[in-house]
Specification:
Pfam families: E1_dh. The protein has 7 helices and 4 strands, in the order E-E-E-H-H-E-H-H-H-H-H. The chain is mainly alpha-helical. The longest helix is centred in the N-terminal third of the chain and has 26 residues.
């Protein structure tokens, strides 16, 4: 998956961390978030332990992380039901990585990933239905693990951590979080059911968009006696 970062209202073009000099909620609608200290390795300067987060940023990041968690829970269930075939490496517990990086990306930045890509695909602008359909091999697709110890999950879960921080900083209320959680559950459940009902991708797409500038030769399939024809579905990204 390789996708340009779309323009977002709250992205920091210079990648700088905004520090807060006051205490409590600010008049501008921003509040300080205190982070734990870090053990350093070959570094002389540690990341900031206090940053400023606006209300809109807090709601956006929490919503994104919780949506990814719901997507991955749904994906795990689809995998158990054999609606997702092959390997299905989930992004559960790593939501803060994609969401945090996305906040620092500039509009002209690109990202690429080939492993545990569900969360990244979503934060880069792909709708949950397209992600779920891609995982299940349905036509609405994008075309484009080991279980942790319970104590670690409880103390280091990024969604729980973020929720506690933004509520305690008076950026959002617990009631707002409940409404967001309920809406996300509805959205992901709907996308999952629709992906399951969608038509499967046709066999002719086995040989689709293999090369950007196909020269017309047949493509070898599982048998040398049954060659496949190359099919063009969409424009090649590297020829744009």
């Amino acid at each position: 998956m390789c996708k340009k970062s779309p323009k977002v209202k709250n992205s920091r073009a210079d990648g700088a961390t905004r520090l807060d000099s006051g205490a409590g909620r600010l008049d501008s609608g921003a509040g300080p978030i205190r982070n734990p200290t870090f053990m350093l390795h070959k570094l002389t300067k540690a990341p900031a332990t206090q940053v400023t987060l606006t209300r809109d940023e807090a709601l956006e990041m929490y919503t994104q992380m919780h949506t990814i968690r719901r997507m991955e829970t749904a994906a795990a269930n689809l995998y158990k039901e054999k609606n997702i075939r092959g390997f299905c490496h989930l992004y559960s517990g790593q939501e803060a990585v994609a969401v945090g990086f996305k906040q620092a990306l500039r509009p002209q930045d690109s990202v690429i990933t080939a492993y545990r890509a569900h969360g990244w695909t979503y934060v880069m602008g792909v709708k949950p239905l397209a992600v779920m359909a891609e995982l299940t091999g349905r036509q609405t697709g994008t075309r484009e693990e080991v279980q942790e110890v319970q104590e670690v999950c409880q103390t280091r879960d990024p969604i729980t951590f973020t929720k506690e921080k933004i509520i305690s900083s008076n950026l959002v209320t617990a009631e707002e979080i409940k409404k967001i959680d309920a809406q996300i559950k509805t959205d992901i459940d709907t996308a999952t059911e629709q992906a399951k009902r969608d038509k499967e991708i046709g066999l002719d797409e086995l040989s689709a968009d293999i090369t950007a500038n196909h020269l017309g030769s047949d493509i070898r399939g599982v048998s040398i006696f049954a060659p496949l024809k190359h099919k063009r579905i969409g424009p090649a990204n590297n020829l744009k």
